[in-house]
Amino acid sequence: MQTEYYLTISLAIYDDRIEIASPGTCSPQITAENIKEPH
């Protein structure tokens, strides 16, 4: 498996939300169901 270290993560902050875009994958513990839960 090759890791692409030059890829960037983008972060956009709005009045009503934060958007994070990452070219990688999420940790296996993060799912579509639990991402909205309080952290």
TrEMBL record:
Which Pfam families does its entry note?
Answer: HATPase_c_4 (PF13749)
Q: Which Gene3D superfamilies does the record cross-reference, listed alphabetically?
A: 3.30.565.60
InterPro entries per UniProt: RecG_C_sf
Please give the name of this protein.
Answer: Uncharacterized protein
Task: Record the organism.
Answer: Parabacteroides distasonis
